[in-house]
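This part of the workshop introduces the protein records we will be handling. The question running through the whole workshop is how a given chain folds. To make this concrete, we reproduce a full record directly below:
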Amino acid sequence: MHETAERAVVVDELALARLGVASVLQSQGADVIAETHSGREAVTIATLEGPDLVVLGRPADLTVADTVRRLARVHPMPGVVVLLAPGQEDSVAYLVALGTRAVALRTGSVDELGVVIASALKGVQMVVPALQHALAGSVSLRAVEAGPDLLSAREREVLACLAQGLSNREIAATLSVTLATVKSHLVRIYTKLEAGNRNEALGRAVALGLLS
């Protein structure tokens, strides 16, 4: 009696990148059931087909974080392997918090990708060594000591909306405040977390236990 092969979906805007990832998946015994350039289409495929694994590079239509957020709403959530481009390290902690099974570099070697996919197919969560420094970010001692008391209750609400991928206008509507108020809260959140953008703020919030 033969074991059923793990079923996988490959997502990347570049056909050549999809071909390379598919080749590695097949070398690991996985059955590639679909390839797409679209994050939205990947979520639809995951919903309809229930793959075991989604290998996510750079979608043409959504950000990596937004695609993972949408995949996290699929039941059951497939194992997600994210291949980050250089400069996206600030999103590692947030992606892990969303339930991403593995995070690797888009510029990594074929051998490294093989190890990552083999691990992911076994259900093991991993972050490649080159990205492990980004798990906690450069959170300052002051922020660590402040811990859960670092942000006000309203700032935590804004942060939670941020984690859901809401725009500033959507946050304002959700919390029944003005757009200017939301922007003021975001400035304070970024300052307290010593973050330069949304992904960095969310990653550091995860590292500090401010987001579950």
In short: The radius of gyration is 18 Å.
